[in-house]
Every structure is written in C-alpha cells, then in structure tokens.
Design brief:
By secondary structure, the protein is an all-beta fold. The protein contains three helices and 45 strands. Strands 7-8-10-13-16-19-22-25-28-33-38-41 form a twelve-stranded parallel sheet. An eleven-stranded parallel sheet has the order 9-11-14-17-20-23-26-29-34-39-42, with no helix packed on it. A ten-stranded parallel sheet has the order 12-15-18-21-24-27-30-35-40-43, with no helix packed on it. A hairpin with a 4-residue loop joins strand 36 and strand 37.
Amino acid sequence: AADGFVGPLDVDDLWFPPGQTDRLEWSPAAEADSYGLYRGTIGVEGFRLRGAVPRYGHVCLATKLPGTQALDPGRPRPGTAFYYIATGLRFSEGPYAMPESGMLSQDGAQARHPRIRCGPRLYVREGASGPSDGLSWETADPTLQDALARASRAEVWIAGTVPAQGVTDVWQGIVLYGGFAGSEASVWERDPAAHATVVRGDLGMRWHDGSETFLLDGIELVGDITSQALGGFVLRDVHVRGDVVLALPSDYGSMWGVVVEDAVLDRGLAVSLCGSPKIDLVVHDSVMRRSDGTVLRLSAEGCILGDSVRMLVDDSRIEGGTKGVSISGSRFCDGSHAVEIRGLFASNVVLGSAGPAFQASAQAVLNGGYVCSAEIDLRLVGNTIADGGGSAVTCSAGGGGIFEATGGPAHASCRARLVDNLVTHHAGAGAVERIEGDERFNTAELVLVGNDFWALGGPAYLPADGAAVPDADAVNSREGHRDNFSADPLYRDLGSGDVHLLDGSPAIDRAVADADAVCRVRDPDIPWRCAGGSPSALDIDGEPRCRDGDGDGVARCDVGADEHGPTTP
C-alpha cells in the first residue's frame, strides 16, 4: 500500500499477463477467502478525484471471485482508459469478516480504504421456491426485495422476470446484474441479449453513505427509478420503461456523478441538483424519448454548497417531448456560491420535440444578503438537431444585477459554441440569444461556425440585440461567426426519423473544424473527447469520424451526427 500499511485483505500487486488485455491477475491477500474487483474510467482530462469529499469513481465489477484472476472483456471508449483495483474479501468469522447474509457492518469485508467496498453475491431467480438464503442459484430468492433486505452492499445476479414491488429504500453499493440463464458461475458468462432479465416494479433509493455507487446493468425495468443523494449512479445496457428522476437535496452534496451508457430510457432522464460540488453527468450511446415533458433535463439550483457540473452527452438520440434538452442553472441561494455548468454535446440526434429542441438558461438570484451567480458554458459539435416545433437552440440569461444592501453584483451568463451541426426543419429560429434584465450583469452569447441552417420558420440567428439575421450568409457577415451555410442536408427519411445522409449531401466532408482546432480553444473543465481525429471519435452509429465521403481523396468530417460512408446502415 502507498502508506506502507498492508492489511490482511489488501492486494499488493495487480497486472495484465504478457500479451493479454482482457485477463487480470493479482497477488493473494493474507486472510482473504475471495476477492472483489473494481473498475473505474480515466477520462481525457486525466485521473482525478470527484465530489464534495474527493473520491474515486470506480464501481464493484465482480465480487466473491474464488481466485487471484478475472476476465474483463470490456473496452474503454476512445480517448479514455480503465483502471482496476483488487481487494481481498472474507465472509467467515473474525474482525474483518462480513456475514454471508444480513446487514453489512461498517468495517466488514473491505479493503482498508473506506471508498473501496464490495458486498456479498446474492441470487434472484424467476420461479424460485422453497427455502432460500439468496447465496446460490439453487437457493435463490424469488423477488428482488428479498435479496436487497439481506445486505447493504451486494452484487445481485438476476435470472428471468422477477418482481420488485416494495423496493423503496435501496442502499448504495448495490450492483444489479441481469442476463443470466440461472446456472452461471462467473459474471462474464452472462448474456443479456440471449437471456432477458425483466424487473417489474419501481426502484426507490435514498441517501445512506454518499460514497457508494448504484449500478444497474443488463436489465429491463418495467417501472420508475427515483433516487436522492447517491454517491454515484450508473445505468449500463438497460431499458427503463418508466421515469428516471435523480434528485440530490441540499442536505448532502456528496454525489460524484451520473453515467448512462448503452441505455434506452422510455421516459427520459431528469437530474435535479442542489448543492453538488464537482459532479459529472455522462450520457453515451443511449436513446432517450418521451411524448410529454422534457426528454433530458438538468436543473442545478446551487443551494448551500453551489453546483459545479461537467456534462458529456455523445452518440445518443433524444427524441420527442415538449422539449428535447433543457439545462438550467438557477440560484436558490443560501450562500455566496455559484452555479457552474460546462459541457460538450457531440454526435447526437435531437429530433421531433413539440417545442424548443435545446434550451440553456442561466438565472442569477439576489437573495437576502447573498450574491448569487450562475454560469453555463457549452459546446455543441457535430449534432443533428431537427424536426422541432419551436426554436432549435436557445441560450438565455437573466436575474443578474446589484444587490442594494451590499452593492455586490450577481451575474448570469449563458455561452454556447455551435460547430458543424445540422440545424434544420424547425418551426422557430435556428439559434437564439435571450437576455432578461440589465445587460451589464446578464450575458447570452452564441458562436456559430460551420452549421447548416435550413427549413426554419424563423431567422437562422436571433441575437440578443433583437436584430433578426435571416440566413447563413447574413450570419457569416457578423463578427465571430463563419462558414455557416443553408442547404437541404438530404436526410434519408426525416419523416421516419432516419437522418442518415444520402449521397450528394452538402454536409458530407464539410466540417470546418478538425479536432486540433476545436480542442485548442477548449475549456479544461469541459470533458472533451478529441481522440481519433475529431471532437467525437465516433458518429451516432459508432462509426469512425473523418472519412473520405465524397471520393476526393481527402478525409474530412461530415456536418451533423452521421458520418456518411459505405458502412452506414
């Protein structure tokens, strides 16, 4: 261990055998009867601790491993890397032991570091009957609530369709895995595509520790997910048929992040924050949709500790809703702390909203004796934003001013840089700046580079000064904007939601900013993905960016979310 202490459950060394990248091995721990393996991700910004109380962002990948080796066939996304931690576990008697069932003691079966924990493995199987202790497939529990009553931290394997009625108080540190047939001995044997796992009922979670992560992997949930104050929240390879509403109240401020990967969320995602310093919100390769309300909503109110949010949304589809995306930084202020939201949206399709497709709103508040500011700074790169019933992209700021009792200013700022997006077929304007209040304290600023503005019911650009800019040529004549154009992008079939580009599209090989040019102006707090030759290494279909789509021998990126080429489905 780095501090010179090696406890009876600590693993001293961990490695990949020569020539292998999917098998890990480690040295034995002195008193372990099994092992837990953890995995986290290092982003393009490098390794960093997260949250109000600095902590790592890894989750328990597997528990109760019988030996000192494991498989992980997973691969990190371009521009990122995995890191691993192995630790010994003990489920027998003694000062470091965890009971096989029952609630976990605070010091049981864990490595010495308090942020590194894996619980026991529990089993839930459709049709299970007879005596059960949840410790094997043969003695599996019949319902999810039976299993979750046994341990405060656990890896739960689920086979078949099982009920979850009454699961209203899930502990953090719970990992729910689906995709099992009901006979597997290793988590790597599961196959969610071949063995569907369905959990019927709502999952409700609330704060217990703040340092733990809840993970749902390979499961269809017919119900809602609601939570308060989880340390971390991960949805991976899931289909949620109900609402996903994550709220962090002002009492805590310990959440490190929300990660949604390879997921389908039928009722979208809503994240509400109130005092959450330094958290990450990541949505990757997912589909979110709903018929009413906002599909993807982030609301940060600041509260006692302020909010600092880093967002990465890429390779995802956001469909329907009265609004597609809504990002708001408002100040319900109990102290002199700012709301800061910074993010990158890349290679997404935002489609079919009844009203505005993408809205960002920074609202400062003068409250009591406190000076309360709000700042939003976004980059939208290579997205297709189409077929909306209102404006396409709106950036607004308001509420800022001078608090008379102290003379202190409160500022509101919304800034967004739009690069290489298809902004087409909207009932309203293409890009809108809106300021409410004194311009000295409220700023709304868009920078438009290389976008296609087409088939709009309003002007291409409506700046804060109110002077409508009708088309792309007029946009380019204004300082700071360049290389925008107005042309039919030639979607394959917009009416059915297919926004792949046809041969001859003017968006092919027309992206104006290569990765280096865009990344040179990036904010270090924005989680850019610049590996692989473009701001997002992959397009909406997971195909490489920057190919030669027009046959001129020069590989350039396409405008919009689809990179046209021979392998496009």
